[in-house]
Amino acid sequence: MNKYCNNSDVYESNCIPKTVNASIAVLTPKEDKDFIVRKVTLAIDGSMPNHINEIQHQQYVLKGEAKVIVGDEEYHAKVGDFIYIPAGVAHKYDACYGSEYEFLCMITTQEDKITML
Questions:
Q1: How far is CA 19 from CA 31, 41, 82, 92, in A?
Q2: Closest Cα to residue 61, out of 23, 100, 9?
């Protein structure tokens, strides 16, 4: 891999526990102390159950469509959408529109605790 510029497809992708057909690749170098950028992919009909994080998330949709629920608001997220998830707010994803769903998820390097609902 190059030091400063790589295609996101060259990064190792791992299955996300307690999800259906969802994977994650961490794109940020390990030595970064400020923030982390991750690429999350849900296969067609993939899903991530309702959960809460202690830190905020900022997300940008790269590909596909999904039903995204943040708090009590439901969204039909699609390419180009930006999603803000405040700390402590429940959220879930369902790639139910017949396409793979892929997004960048940006978080701080602060310690996070995930609570599954």
A1: 28, 11, 22, 10
A2: 100
The pTM of the whole model exceeds 0.90: yes
Question: DSSP letters of the chain?
Answer: --SS---GGGS--EEPTTSEEEEEEE-S-TT-SSEEEEEEEEEEEEEEEEEEESS-EEEEEEESEEEEEETTEEEEEETT-EEEE-TT--EEEE--SSS-EEEEEEEESS---EEE-
The total number of residues shown for the chain amounts to 117
The contacts of residue 92 (CB under 8 Å, 6+ apart) are 47, 48, 49, 50, 51, 68, 69
pLDDT of residue 103: 98
Identify the band that residue 30 occupies on the pLDDT scale cut at 50, 70 and 90: confident
Percent of the chain at pLDDT exceeding 90: 94
**What tokens does 51 get?**
């959960």
